[in-house]
Design brief:
Shape: elongated
Distance between the termini: 54 Å
Radius of gyration: 23 Å
Strand content: under 5%
Number of helices: 2
Number of strands: 0
Largest sheet: none
Order of helices and strands: HH
């Protein structure tokens, strides 16, 4: 077996694997798009509350709130954060 054959088989294997990953992700996307998320209850605007003894500064709370809102695809004013806990 020549070096060209080995290289060709290696590159071919990688591309077949990548194509399989793309197909699997497409199938998972199709399956999960069929499942509708449950209706979320209406939330009111409330100030974030820290449940730990240390209080978080307002910049940290704002950053966490913005990150959560962005992940959920909503405005910051449309979510209600009841507690923020530090994870060690």
């Amino acid at each position: 077996m020549g070096i060209g054959t080995v290289i060709g088989l290696g590159i071919g294997t990688v591309f077949v694997g990548l194509i399989c990953i793309v197909v699997l992700i497409s199938v998972m996307n199709a399956v999960f798009s069929l499942v509708k998320p449950k209706a979320e209850p209406k939330t009111s605007n409330a100030a974030p509350v820290s449940s730990s003894d240390e209080r978080l500064d307002s910049e940290t709370v704002a950053a966490v709130s913005a990150a959560i809102a962005e992940t959920m695809g909503k405005e910051v004013s449309a979510i209600r954060i009841t507690s923020i806990k530090k994870v060690n």
